[in-house]
Design goal:
Layout lengths: L1 E3 L8 H8 L9 H20 L1 H12 L3 H17 L1 H11 L1 H20 L4 H30 L4 H29 L2 H19 L15 E4 L10 E5 H6 L3 E2 L7 E2 L10 H4 L1 H13 L3 H5 L1 H15 L3 H12 L4 H28 L4 H17 L1 H4 L3 H20 L1 H9 L4 H30 L4 H24 L12 H9 L3 H10 L1
Antiparallel strand pairs: 1-3, 2-3, 4-5
Helix pairs in contact: 2-7, 2-8, 2-9, 3-4, 3-8, 4-7, 4-21, 5-6, 5-7, 5-12, 5-21, 6-7, 6-9, 7-8, 8-16, 14-21, 14-22, 15-16, 16-19, 17-19, 17-22
């Protein structure tokens, strides 16, 4: 490591940004990444939204009541979203591709273990808890990498990726229904395990845009300002820097990078690379400062909690209520496919509108959740005929399409790209809490008041979520809009280079 003060070797922050960080290409290999993410969404969401067909058979064969059987779906979706902070930490440490491949393999194994589980409680452990976390590793990581490859076209790219959910629901639900009738739920579950394993193949295509380590041993200048000598600059071997991000500061001096352990009496967890990575992941998981620092983000997080508390309950009971009103089983099951069909163009349209900036993603999200609330309020009037049921699922699907596909866009507007990974983890954590409560509370409502009354529970949750989302829109209109260029500040560049740790932030604040 050398320290020099040659001003000619210094570069402007923007030039350092371009040298160090590849900008989002908005195309090129990004289209391959987009295709891989689309197919992962197709598989994961297609199987998850169609699981209600398998769940009905599991409850019948195990004589499990609704409130207890629904915990299978509740645990799976809940732990999927609660894994957000874990996924954010793992993705930052190991990259999205490794997390997706590992998550796909573990999820496939969990599905097979569920088939051979002798009790509903083991199924909850394998499919619900472990399978939920591993599914989150695959699904959430495939969305995080889209924000890395796309900037100006981020809305369209996210919309296309999320449209895979609709295509998956449309294609996979009839296949699972056929397999259950032809064979049984165990054989169908085994097929789902083999399908999910293909996500590892598609995940291998998701090459990181800015890998954490380089195969070449180039020396690059890292901009660090000394408290006493602001013109001094550090130069460090890139491979060594990426492997050992040990940072020790002293009052009135530049920081010391990758110095011998005997010269730095560092704590053991900083000297050991594995423990350092583990501490980094734990830090990512427990960093909830955004909730205190950003009031708009706090509101949107609470909104997501209530929305997802009522989100999955309709998927569990729409088909059953339709059959209670004299609709044939095949037509009743097709209602779920209609949701998938409508989601395909709706999610893409939301993305296009958000990219064209006719309306901000935050306000567009408020419109979407309000639209999804309306049919839930009037479900009692719409449940009587098949045509009115189709109207219900169509309008509701258009609303929830925006609620799902706009998450990336409105989080970038609220917190910026640098904090996007952390914000995604927090939002998905609260979504997971909602998913834990929703199916269980919905099952209790159904047990006491009948299946058709699930709409009251979901409508109440969506009304609260809409009110909170409206407050976010009001708060965002009271603040000046952020420019895209604001993301590329000098401090952001330095933090990105060194790693997002508290000690680096303190160093930067002292330099200012």
């Amino acid at each position: 490591m050398t320290v020099g003060s040659d001003k000619s070797s210094q570069k402007k922050p923007q030039e350092q940004l371009e040298e160090r960080i590849n900008p989002p290409p908005d195309g090129g290999y990004g289209w391959i990444v987009l295709a891989g993410s689309f197919l992962i969404s197709f598989i994961i969401d297609g199987v998850m939204y169609s699981f209600g067909l398998i769940l009905s058979e599991i409850k019948k064969t195990t004589n499990t009541p609704d409130s207890q059987g629904n915990l299978l779906s509740s645990f799976n979706t809940g732990f999927l979203f609660c894994s957000g902070p874990i996924v954010a930490g793992l993705a930052n440490q190991f990259g999205c591709r490794a997390v997706i491949i590992g998550g796909s393999v573990v999820t496939s194994i969990c599905y097979m273990l569920t088939v051979f589980s002798p009790s509903i409680y083991l199924m909850m452990a394998f499919y619900g808890i472990i399978g939920g976390v591993s599914t989150g590793c695959t699904y959430i990581s495939s969305l995080i990498i889209i924000a890395e490859y796309f900037d100006k076209k981020r809305g369209v790219a996210t919309g296309i990726t999320m449209a895979g959910s609709g295509v998956g629901s449309f294609v996979i639900a009839p296949i699972l229904s056929f397999l259950i009738k032809k064979f049984d739920w165990k054989f169908t579950m085994s097929i789902c395990a083999s399908i999910i394993l293909q996500s590892a193949v598609f995940g291998a295509l998701l090459r990181p845009l800015n890998p954490s380590s380089s195969s070449s041993k180039k020396t690059k200048n890292v901009e660090l300002k000394s408290l006493n000598h602001p013109n001094k600059q550090l130069s460090v071997d890139e491979e060594t820097f990426d492997k050992e991000r040990v940072i020790q500061t002293y009052v009135g001096s530049v920081c010391s990078l990758n110095v011998p352990e005997k010269d730095l009496k560092l704590p053991f967890h900083q000297r050991n690379s594995f423990l350092r990575k583990a501490c980094g992941i734990l830090k990512e998981m427990t960093d909830f400062r955004l909730l205190k620092e950003n009031f708009g983000f706090l509101l949107i997080t609470l909104s997501n909690f209530f929305l997802f508390t009522g989100y999955f309950t309709p998927f569990l009971y729409i088909s059953d209520v339709a059959q209670e009103n004299g609709i044939e089983e095949e037509k009743a099951a097709f209602l779920l496919s209609i949701i998938g069909i409508v989601n395909i163009p709706a999610r893409m349209i939301y993305g296009i509108i958000a990219d064209r900036q006719f309306i901000s993603a935050i306000n567009l999200n408020t419109f979407a959740v309000a639209l999804a609330t309306v049919p839930l309020i009037f479900y009692f009037l719409l449940k009587t005929t098949y045509l009115s049921q189709v109207v219900f699922v169509t309008v509701w699907a258009i609303g929830i399409a925006g609620m799902n596909s706009l998450t990336t866009m409105y989080l970038c507007e609220l917190v910026g790209l640098k904090k996007f990974s952390n914000a995604t983890g927090i939002v998905n954590l609260f979504r997971g809490f909602g998913c834990f409560l929703g199916p269980f509370l919905g099952g209790e409502v159904v047990r006491f008041f009948g299946k058709a009354n699930f709409c009251f529970f979901s409508a109440l949750c969506f009304i609260i979520g809409t009110i909170l989302a409206s407050l976010v829109s009001f708060v965002s209109m009271c603040k000046p809009a952020k420019k895209r260029e604001d993301i590329n500040e000098t401090n952001e560049t330095t933090i990105k280079t060194l790693g997002d740790s508290e000690i680096n932030r303190n160093l930067l604040s002292n330099n200012e």
